[in-house]
Amino acid sequence: MKPRITLATATLADGTPLELQEHDGRHSLVVRGQEIAGASTRTAEEECARLACAPFRPARQPKIWFAGLGLGQSLAAACESLLQKRGTFFVAEPQPELVTWQREHFPEGAFVKDGRVVLEQDAGPSGLASHEGTLHAIILHTETAPIGKDGKSIVENRRWLTAAYDALQPGGLLAIASSRPLASLFRTLERAGFTVVEHRVPSSTTAKRPRLLPVWLARKGRPE
pTM (2 decimals)? Predict the structure, then answer.
C-alpha cells in the first residue's frame, strides 16, 4: 500500500491546520483528517462549474468569480467550459499558501497556465463590491469557501449573499457545490432574492453506487 504523504502545511485564519497531501498520484486538502478537496469533491466541483458556465457560452467576455481556490478543480472545469479569449476568471483566495501550492505543485494547472485567470485576495463583501453588476457567475464549494470574520462559511452570511447578488449581472448565477446536504441553504438563497434550483450530482463517475451530492444554482432575477 502506497503511503499518504504530506507535501505542505498551513494554518487557517481560525488556527485550524491545513495540509496538502498526496497519495498514489492523487492530491487532497485535509483539515483534521477530513478531506475538504480532492477525489471526493472533484466530480461535484467540476459539474457545478459546468452548470454555472453553460448559459454563458455565447458571451463574448464572460466574467466568472471564484470564492476560494481549493485545488483549482472548479477553476479548471470553468476554463475548459468557456474558451473565449476575452473571458476573465477571478479567483478570490485570502490564504496565500493555496496560491503558492498551485505554483509549486500544479504548474500545469489552469491557475498557473491560463492567462485569463486573475488573482484577488478579498473574498468578502467588499471584494464582490468591486464587481458590482458585472459578473456572469460566482462559483464556490462549501468545504473550501473562505471563512468570514464571524467564523462561519461565507454562504451563511447574509451580507455576503447580498453582495453576491449585487455583483451579478441580471440572469447571473451563484453556483454552490457541497459534500453534504444543507437543509436551510435553499431557503436562505431565496430570501436573498435568488431563484433557486437544486441538482444532485454523483460523487464519482467510476463508483458503482456513488453518493449524490447537492449543487445549488441561484439565479439573479426571476425566470422568464
Answer: 0.95
